[in-house]
Design a protein that fits this description.
It is a single chain. With about 450 residues, the protein is of the alpha+beta class. The chain has two domains: about 350 residues, Kinesin (3-Layer(aba) Sandwich), CATH 3.40.850.10; about 80 residues, no CATH class. It is about 35% helix and about 25% strand. The relative contact order is 0.16. The structure holds adenosine-5'-diphosphate (ADP) and magnesium ion (MG). Magnesium ion binds next to helix 3. It holds the Pfam family Kinesin.
Length: about 450
């Protein structure tokens, strides 16, 4: 087990209109946002400014390319997954701030493809390089809307089911070890990069067609694309199993209620209830510090149950907070940054998920037994049994020994082949010769 702090990144999306005043400092590990007072409280308008400072592993400014995002945010998580560590990358931010752009990508240009397709491409190109292991991949794609799970890769979507609503709902099950399993969520094998990308695109299509402008599903739902990797070392019984969740969370926007005049505090509430529960988990994790048994309310929502390992468990996790730096969104941007600061306090305990595969052990032992049988048969001299040495053979052996005894050459050899029965017989015969004090005789 080793400690892993959750890495937090900030991405500013390009925007038209007036920017809020911000400055990235210390080689883009810090951002200072300047808020005019009138933004904070509506009653007094003055020129006082308030500065808010936030630290991140990296702050990506508006012009950052998708490739750089992938390399810094997701690349290390994917590399760790190849070595057997679980991983999670989740995007958090208000609707329109670029979560889906960051994870899935833009529809127009190839270079705009996001973390999900890039993660798959990276995996398969690494498989080709890492020839000491063989790899198997499965993927699943879950959408959670209103605390109900839908399988975006359910085969029925292509045949009978018309919409996600017609599908059996995905539900949570907990086994006796406390591990969470998802019923009715399909996992599809993907032996090539093309298979995996096709599954991803199929899920994206089902996600897009299932949403109507009325229910605003994309901003209210969470989407979790999961890649399961099984790696087996060539010539070993040990397999490593890891899973990577790539998570596009629901929009984090809140409803703001300004209190009575003179009160500077804005009371705010998440529109999405499960994000509220996510924040509760984060706060509990932040407070538990060292006390690993402290209660964390994961079970309050399906999303937090599914992401339990990603937060405070056995997982290398990175969060990408997305903000729209437009002046009109400063409140939301600040709350996104504050949320990220809390997440950064969480440390996970990570380990490689290695296990001995019993099927492989059985296969190997069977092969070993077969090899040993073969060797033994060879030592016995073909398929003759020790007890079955015929009188003819014995006579032949005695003649060989006699010949050997009378041969004066020091280089002479008694050659009878790799057969235990024959060897034993010859040694016994030599002993009788030695006792009788002679060389050869019976014939
Ligand atoms: P969210 O998923 O957070 O609601 P989207 O990813 O859908 O937001 O982004 C909203 C719009 O802004 C989309 O049209 C998207 O293509 C665009 N967009 C977001 N981030 C970027 C970016 N970094 N570069 C270019 N376009 C972006
Ligand atoms: Mg989105």
């Amino acid at each position: 087990m080793s400690e892993h702090r959750i890495n937090i990144f900030l991405r500013l999306r390009p925007t038209k209109g007036q920017l809020c005043k911000y400055e990235a400092l210390d080689e883009n590990t810090k951002i200072v946002v300047e808020v005019p007072r009138e933004n904070l409280a509506q009653e007094v308008i003055n020129n006082q400014k308030e500065k808010h400072e936030f630290s991140f592993n990296h702050v990506f400014d508006r012009d950052t390319r998708q490739e750089d995002i992938f390399n810094k945010v997701a690349g290390p998580v994917m590399n760790a997954a190849l070595d057997g560590f679980n991983g999670t990358v989740f995007a958090y931010g208000q609707t329109g701030s670029g979560k889906t752009f960051t994870l899935t990508g833009g529809p127009e240009k190839y270079e705009d493809r996001g973390i999900m397709p890039r993660a798959l491409s990276m995996l398969y190109s690494q498989f080709k390089k890492r020839t000491d292991y063989t790899y198997q991949v499965h993927v699943s794609y879950l959408e959670i809307y209103n605390d109900t799970g839908y399988d975006l890769l359910d085969p029925a979507l292509e045949t009978q089911a018309k919409s996600l609503e017609d599908l059996p709902k995905v539900s949570l099950m907990e086994d006796e070890d406390g591990n969470i399993h998802l019923r009715n969520l399909s996992a599809h094998p993907a032996s090539t990069e093309e298979d995996a990308l096709n599954l991803l695109f199929l899920g994206e299509t089902n996600r897009a067609t299932s949403e109507t402008p009325m229910n605003l599903a994309s901003s209210r739902s969470h989407c979790i694309f999961t890649i399961f990797i099984t790696a087996t070392q060539v010539g070993s019984d040990v397999t490593r199993k890891s899973k990577v969740h790539l998570v596009d969370l629901a929009g984090s926007e809140r409803v703001y209620k300004t209190r009575a005049q003179g009160d500077l505090l804005n009371e705010s509430k998440y529109i999405n209830l499960s994000l509220h529960f996510l924040e509760m988990c984060i706060v509990a994790l932040q407070e538990r510090k060292g006390n690993k048994k402290a209660f964390v309310p994961y079970r309050n929502s399906m999303m937090t149950s599914v992401l339990r390992d990603s937060l405070g468990g056995n997982c290398k996790t990175s969060m990408i907070a997305t903000i729209n730096p437009n002046k009109d969104h400063t409140d939301e941007s600040l709350s996104t940054c504050r949320f990220a600061q809390r997440v950064a306090c969480i440390s996970n305990a990570v380990k490689v998920n290695e296990e001995v595969d019993p099927q492989r052990v059985i296969k190997r032992l069977k092969k070993e037994v077969a090899d040993l049988r073969e060797e033994l048969a060879l030592l016995r001299g073909g398929d003759e049994e020790e007890t079955e040495l015929s009188e003819e053979t014995l006579k032949h052996l005695r003649a060989k020994v006699d010949e050997f005894m009378v041969d004066p050459s020091p280089e002479s050899e008694l050659s009878i082949g790799p057969h235990m029965g024959k060897l034993r017989y010859c040694i016994g015969y030599l002993k009788t010769i030695a006792r009788s004090g002679g060389g050869g005789g019976k014939g």
